[in-house]
Please model this.
Amino acid sequence: MKGNRMPARPRSARARRGEGLARRVGGSRFGVRFVGRVVSPLHRWLYRVSKGRISLTGRSPVLLLTTTGRKTGKTRTVPVFYLRDGERIIVCNVTPPFERTNPWTINLRATPAASVQIGDKTIECRARTATDDEIAHYWMTLNEIWPAYQRFFDQGGRRSIFILEPTTTP
Model:
């Protein structure tokens, strides 16, 4: 799981404050809506254009997940935090109690074939829901990446954790 940890580099106090602000705002009702409507589309565009070199999440690992819409059949791409465990990719969503379920989780359950872009590489994957043992194993690390997961879950949010297993060699 240490594969997505970048080497430590000195960060300015301003950068640390900005990261803390992003985590606080992103964990609020306003932040959830702002991220979904403004930050996520901007992040998706920046990630594609820069081939993953520019991220709006600081050091937190992000990939672009492309799923197939269960009703429309159209492809949908969203930036998602992730973990690596060998070849496997772990993605998580915790829907706050005040929000509807994130469409990518519903789409992934309906059609488990997906693709992920990590940096400039695209990997075809097959998704499955994590087992209880896998959830216990990955949950703490997922919360280190995005602490709002735990806060939303404690408030009665719904947790979805998927294991993406490559069907092609990266």
Observations:
- The helical segments are 13-26, 29-50, 103-110, 132-145, 148-154.
